[in-house]
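Researcher: Batch entry, complex prediction.
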Amino acid sequence: RINGSRLWSAIMELAQIGATAKGGVKRLALTELDKQGRDLVVGWGKQAGLSITVDQIGNVFMRREGTNPALPPIVSGSHIDTQPTGGKFDGNYGVLAALEVVRTLNDHKILTEAPIEVAFWTNEEGSRFVPVMMGSGVFCGAFSLDTAYAACDTEGKNVKDELQGIGYLGRQVPGNHPIGAYFEAHIEQGPVLEDADKVIGVVPAVMGLSWYDCVVTGMEAHAGPTPMHLRKDALQVATKIMQEVVNIGNRYPPYGRGTVGMVQVFPNSRNVIPGEVKFSIDLRNINDELLNKMHEEILAFAEKIAVETGLKIHTERVSYYPPCPFHPECVDAVRSATAKLGYSNMDVVSGAGHDAIYAARLAPAGMIFVPCKDGISHNEIEDARADHLEAGCNVLLHAMLERAKV
Amino acid sequence: RINGSRLWSAIMELAQIGATAKGGVKRLALTELDKQGRDLVVGWGKQAGLSITVDQIGNVFMRREGTNPALPPIVSGSHIDTQPTGGKFDGNYGVLAALEVVRTLNDHKILTEAPIEVAFWTNEEGSRFVPVMMGSGVFCGAFSLDTAYAACDTEGKNVKDELQGIGYLGRQVPGNHPIGAYFEAHIEQGPVLEDADKVIGVVPAVMGLSWYDCVVTGMEAHAGPTPMHLRKDALQVATKIMQEVVNIGNRYPPYGRGTVGMVQVFPNSRNVIPGEVKFSIDLRNINDELLNKMHEEILAFAEKIAVETGLKIHTERVSYYPPCPFHPECVDAVRSATAKLGYSNMDVVSGAGHDAIYAARLAPAGMIFVPCKDGISHNEIEDARADHLEAGCNVLLHAMLERAKV
Ligand SMILES: NC(=O)NCCC(=O)O
Ligand SMILES: NC(=O)NCCC(=O)O
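Model: Structure tokens for the complex:
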């Protein structure tokens, strides 16, 4: 069994880097604060005797050798970047749970046949740079290193420069790093476990996701003298599409999702009719056919509105991954570890994307969910119970040991 | 007759301060660039022999003495602050036309009975600080100096500190400055004159305006795991109100206006359901009863949506002025100057607010419009013809002379 209070302390200590007044964390990918967080975790890895490798997209692997050098490592991890108004647990828990597994093995001087590795992946959140889950995406070849390097934040700073700036532009070619199996522990980020009063979520699959940038171009003009019928109001047109994004999500219960999270209005002055509006669209579904229908519907709607209003509407897909079922053996390893340890459990589909779906393209993978308070995540008030986090980490330990062999 | 090419040169020189790549001007109120613009105009005033007074809200009056010290001055002016993506002519033309009137009187050594003054008023645009038309509003007592001082920009900087910072926190008590009559020349900022192929717009009245800040508060949560029916999506609710603002404008042709110009989404991340959306509402009408109906309708709609959705909606009026008919004698002075000079003309209601409506509370006032290209204003491509600007300035000269007496 792992040490629950040591795990909790590590989470609280890491959460101090970028701590916000409301009890959350703002530690955006590849910022100075991300560097401080990375340095802290790497320092802990070194203290635990792990050897460190950084690849060209800044993914970090911290390795504990096994007794059989021929075996690929059993890897566990997640990410430590956060949302602009993020919580203490999202991602961070998964990395520190994996570290706690290693610390526990060290405490008990347990040797495994396969090596054990703790990983953290670059820019999982996708809030500073798109594509989302960038580090694991490049690692598995979902998109190229050059695509990732070229990604810019809203201030025009690119990933390669920022990686170099914080000292995490490594040498290893992403993906040149064998993996025997991958496990990721994570807070659920939704209300299902808490509602059902279960401790462990066994994750059979992750919803597919489709992200878009939409730009509506009208003509800025003075809000007073310009008669209503002569306007080209980009916001009035954009809000129709924003409404439809949510309508589409509502048309596909229970696993359809439609969200507009980000909006930029230009020039954003109260007495100027907006000349340009840029916004994001996030569509999800557990069924790829339905996700594709949602995709067709939003494109057709934008097209129809463009014809009706005469304004230019440019909709571009900027991220896509299909639904990802996890490997039956890994799902079973999680399920049987849960049963062995006597925790209540249920299956929970993941609505959030995780690095595990990209790791799953290269190796058998599985995930372990624990409840979070009121199902709230991507929010500074995100919270989770120490006993639940401890339970998830125990399940992780046993699932990893089943694959790594003692 | 005034010197049209000297007027044009002055406009072009002032437009270099804060010039944008697209040919516009970004010279927001009380910024370092506003200081540079003010210094340039004040320098020109001194060269023309004018004495300078600055009041406590930063309004500047540049005075040419008359032969009868008992008479109050005939004042003309406008503003030199601009929109974030503003043009060269809005406001700036009115100030420099008044200066050109003085230069012309100097050239011809014409003495007037009443003094002549060139004025420019602080923060007319209202894009950096609310209330709009701040300097003239404080001057006429529409709101207090303390209200104006306390106004903050989006970075939290307040008017008093910024006035001090640029060296335009003057001593004169606003309003302690008699005015005999006030004239303001301005580009129309709408399409009416150009459509009708007329050179001069005689302005009988200005539409009333009502501005609001609306804040919708929901709950931020993760865009993936949060089922549609459990969301409190502040943007989905806010966009309904934004749509209705435009619907209300459309319901009151031809002089109803409804515009949302400014939107801030929080936390503005693509995979976070927005927890808060703040936006501006701009309603206008030439008829105060109808404007009041529009006011009631938007408040009732917001109320209804709050009840329907359960989200908190806070709508606060932040600016209001009623429609303003100008003084018949001043309107006639403009009309007869136009006729005397032989320019084509028509009456044009102003959809934009102007400092003249506040000056009109203390003295007889009138306005002169000239066409602007395609009716476009509050846009970097705002444009106007030199011959039209010259014509407007000639009308201004003759209207002022009629009141100031030679
Ligand atoms: N787990 C998580 O928050 N991932 C970010 C990608 C997503 O939006 O699903
Ligand atoms: N003339 C002008 O642009 N005034 C600003 C106030 C308004 O929005 O009408």
